[in-house]
Amino acid sequence: MGRIVVEIMPKDEILDPQGKAISNALKRLGIQGFVDVCQGKLFELFVDGAVTSDHLAKARQATEKLLANTVIEKVVNVYEATDQRNGSDKLNSSINQSTRRIASDFGSHEDDLVKIIGASGASY
User: Fold this and answer.
1) Domains of the chain
2) Residues whose CB is less than 8 angstroms from the CB of residue 47 and which lie 6 or more positions away in sequence, other chains included
């Protein structure tokens, strides 16, 4: 099974309230070193067999017509994923483990961090 990844971010001139909320929350939690946060979207499109140039062209078309709101978002990348990961399960598992690990480091702030990440609308 082939996999195509689509990365979408807000245009530079568009305010990113979710990114700003995450940035502020990181500072409140004492997580330093980040100047800014920008939240985007990542889609995975699966095809039977190997990814072809036709699949990539259709993925770009789907991105422009459906996945991205081109008034406020820019398509950063559309590409064939070359790793062997099948679907988002492993990524979700990794993100959840990382979130819990970070949250546990901050003790009583665990619920806040989970709420922040959940409220960010991130979909992995």
Assistant:
1) 2-85 (3.30.1280.10)
2) 1, 2, 3, 4, 55
